[in-house]
Amino acid sequence: MRMQIALVFICLMLAAPLPGQEESLVGRKAPDFSLPTMEGGGKMALKDYRGRVVVLDFWASWCTPSRKSLPRLSSLEEQFPELKILTVSLDDERDSARIFLRQLEVDLTVLHDPEKQLMESYQLTAMPTMMLIDRRGVVRWIQSGYRTGEVDSLVQQIQRLH
User: The whole model's pTM is what?
Assistant: First the structure.
């Protein structure tokens, strides 16, 4: 419960990144990870997608801005067939995330990180946080917190990688 309260604080109070924090990963290799899928059908690792452009999106069902950002991501894989979108739920309980996803009616690859392993390695300062990783596994763009037009900015960044 304390972890969830702390994450709610991050979501609500740190909607903008800390100065210099997000830039520290840009231009560097994205930390690899392996997480279980939301459906429980095994694990997926970031390294499985080397050679493809990847959008990595961190969210939680209790984070109101995630309700706006996730539906916008849903159509991008159709628009860019070489793109892989991996979303990471930081919910403690898998069922909370599942209910949230059903309400939003999104079709995304969802991984589950209830232990919050990736918060430190990806230096998350706000929720949601979206990252663009190039074909070599290098972080090229980060958006911390939700802003109107963020998906449009993401599309521009994706187009630059092609």
Answer: 0.84
